[in-house]
Write a structure and sequence with these properties.
Elements lengths: L1 H11 L6 H7 L3 H6 L9 H22 L5 H12 L1 H10 L10 H5 L6 H18 L2 H11 L1 H5 L9 H9 L7 E9 L6 E8 L2 E8 L2 H15 L6
Antiparallel strand pairs: 1-2, 2-3
Helix pairs in contact: 2-8, 4-5, 4-8, 6-8, 11-12
């Protein structure tokens, strides 16, 4: 925890008063379960709290930043910002992945790199920060770590490429669009899927992702960016 405290102080000027809150935020259930006799607390309750304050602050930011966007667009953008993969990215940016306490089995199976665990730890940290300080400090941290990427357009640029591809292809009538899994690599808890998009049986592009849906979106994106005229 000393190294983590150093990172927080050096990078974010944060010093926790209650060190136990910080330790709990970075303790995964697998570690707590392996040390039951020590009655160690894990981070699930803090994650619950952190998720709530994150949703509130990101909602407030988007509401003020985009006064003309309808509720539906704001909800979609918020969902992209606070989704598991995004939060895992923020956790890595903050070096949080280095400090999570995992059980031996979870560590061996690659848990330290799993988006679910990293995203949960990021939210748990926000919950701990709220309890140790106040919502203003949490807001400052979020604006320091997350908002620059939002304002750079990292999340607004994410589109529903499957719908976009369908609209482009079907402008002159219906066509047969199918997504086919080419390969699945990795253990069940950490698979990588590769999918290709087929139009009237012809491959227009392929993509990879941690889920079939993400791989399909990536395949559609690649097809759109490649230029449909040269593909059909």
């Amino acid at each position: 925890m000393k190294e983590l405290e150093s990172v927080l102080q050096d990078r974010f000027e944060l010093v926790f008063t209650d060190k136990s809150l910080l330790e709990t935020a970075f303790t995964h259930t697998s570690y707590a379960n392996e040390h039951r006799l020590l009655k160690i607390s894990h981070n699930e309750r803090l994650e619950f709290l952190g998720d709530a304050v994150l949703q509130l602050l990101i909602s407030e930011y988007l509401f003020k930043k985009y006064p003309k966007k309808p509720e539906g667009d704001l909800s979609k953008l918020r969902a992209m910002i606070v989704r598991e993969e995004s939060l895992a990215g923020f956790a890595r940016d903050c070096q949080f992945d280095q400090f999570i306490k995992l059980g031996k089995g979870e560590e061996k199976s690659g848990g330290r790199n799993r988006d679910t665990i990293l995203g949960d730890a990021f939210e748990a940290f926000l919950g701990a920060l709220l309890l140790d300080k106040d919502i203003k400090i949490v807001k400052t941290f979020i604006y320091q770590v997350m908002i620059p990427k939002v304002e750079a357009g990292d999340f607004e640029m994410i589109k529903d490429y499957k719908t976009h591809l369908q609209e482009l292809l079907q402008v002159n009538g219906d066509v047969d669009i199918r997504y086919q899994v080419i390969s699945e690599i990795g253990p069940a808890h950490d698979k990588m899927f590769e999918v290709e998009v087929l139009v009237e049986g012809q491959s227009l592009g392929s993509g990879k992702g941690r889920s079939k849906k993400l791989a399909e979106q990536e395949a559609a994106k690649n097809a759109v960016e490649k230029g449909l005229d040269s593909c059909i």
